[in-house]
Amino acid sequence: MADIIANQGLGRIREFADDAGGDVAASQLRMFALQASEADTALRDHDNMSVLIGAAGNTEATFTNYANKVIQDGDITVTVDDTNDRVDIDVPDQTWTSAGNGTNNTLTDLVVGWDPDGTDTDTGTIPMSIHDFTPTTDGSDLTAQIATAGLVRAQ
């Protein structure tokens, strides 16, 4: 589950997941890795990925073979749990093949954001959830499993 929900994602996570899952033709979810990050209380306040990455103390990953990940349409699972009165949203694990080796990073966080028009511009991608993620790259494959219980739980 998310370590924190970004303020822009509060109350909107189900909408973002539904849109990225096919309700809005071009929208998608993206996963960004950070190699330096502010405290969670500051990190959650940024309105888009451009502002988040541009803030002092935040640096997007630069390891060899890094690019933010597109979470494919159809891979987003939204489960309404009427028994427990909640909605669970999950995405598949994401893998960076041969992560690092030329340039390595020690990572701090993963940010999952909603890209409403699928253009991969940081200014349009809205941070949704932020997850602690602290591996160091070394050239081997790097897999990000958000949580065994899922990406986020809305109650």
List the helices and strands and how they pair.
Elements: E1 4-5, H1 13-23, E2 28-36, H2 40-43, H3 49-54, E3 59-60, E4 69-71, E5 77-81, E6 86-90, E7 94-96, E8 109-115, E9 126-132, E10 142-144, E11 152-154
Antiparallel strand pairs: 1-9, 2-3, 2-4, 2-8, 5-6, 6-11, 7-10, 8-9
Features:
155 residues, alpha+beta, 6-stranded antiparallel beta sheet, 3-stranded antiparallel beta sheet, 14% helix, globular
Please state the CA-atom Rg, rounded to the nearest Å. Answer: 15 Å
Q: What is the makeup of the main sheet?
A: 6 strands, antiparallel
Low-confidence stretches: none
Number of strands: 11
Tell me the helix content: 10-25%
Give the termini distance in whole angstroms. Answer: 13 Å
> Helix tally?
3
Pairing-aware structural class of the strands and helices?
alpha+beta
**Average pLDDT number:** 84
Q: What series of H and E elements makes up the topology?
A: EHEHHEEEEEEEEE
Range of strand content: 25-35%
What shape does the CA trace take?
globular
Describe the structure.
This protein has 155 residues and is of the alpha+beta class. It is 14% helix and 32% strand. Strands 1, 2, 3, 4, 8 and 9 form a 6-stranded antiparallel β-sheet that branches. Strands 5-6-11 form a 3-stranded antiparallel β-sheet, covered by helices on one side. The protein has a two-stranded antiparallel sheet with strand order 7-10.
Outline:
It is built from three helices and eleven strands; from the N terminus they run βαβααβββββββββ. It has 155 residues and is of the alpha+beta class. The protein is globular, with a radius of gyration of 15 Å.
